[in-house]
Amino acid sequence: xxxxxxxxxxxxxxxxxxxxxxSRPRQFSASPAEVxxxxxxxxxxxxxxxxxxxxxxxxxxNFDILDQLSYICRMQIGGGIRDMQGVNKILSLAATPILSxxxxxxxxxxxxxxxxxxxxxxxxxxxxxxxxxxxxxNTQIDALEFAKTASKCAGRIIFTQISRDGTLxxxxxxxxxxxxxxxxIKLIASGGISxxxxxxxxxKAGADGCIIGKALYIGKxxxxxxxxxxx
Length: 231
Prior knowledge:
Blueprint: E1 2-10, E2 13-16, E3 26-29, H1 32-41, E4 47-51, H2 52-57, H3 63-70, E5 75-78, H4 84-91, E6 96-99, H5 106-111, E7 120-126, E8 129-132, E9 137-142, H6 143-150, E10 156-161, H7 173-182, E11 186-190, H8 196-204, E12 209-212, H9 214-217, H10 223-230
Parallel strand pairs: 1-4, 1-12, 4-5, 5-6, 6-7, 7-10, 10-11, 11-12
Antiparallel strand pairs: 1-2, 2-3, 7-8, 8-9
Helix pairs in contact: 8-10
């Protein structure tokens, strides 16, 4: 299983949110590039990057920083990618575009099928339903059913339990197992992972990758140890 450290960008800074709450960001570094270099030096082969400003605005807002990061690390990038122009901008960085809100547009979703191996779709769930627009808007769309449709047009699914994100309370393993049963493509888990034991539980549940954020920043998980444990 691949360990994927996370960088969230808000106001040009590296921050972490709790349960997607934009009103209380916690800044960890003024330099996303410095954080990326640290992750790479510790063995990260892929970094999960979210343009939080872009997620709120509905368009990429920190492309200059993303471009800078592209010279440092391989990335999967989400936040504000709502059309093919945004997809192509991320692909120009040799990175994987992560679609969330835009993927709910069935016509646009189907248009991605020819390049599905290059696309990731984020299924961000709150109480089993998909949340959109930077997790600010709730829908009545069932996360598992949407995942089945989305998986036909993507190379990987990134599944986040919003209620666990940034809480360090551990992942929702039952929900992860249900998602694993729902989709056959690559599945990456996110939300609440706070220990090596959590990493191993996620691996046991069948995830192909595991995104770790806050636990790395506050020292609850050592990235090198997590990478070693996940092999």
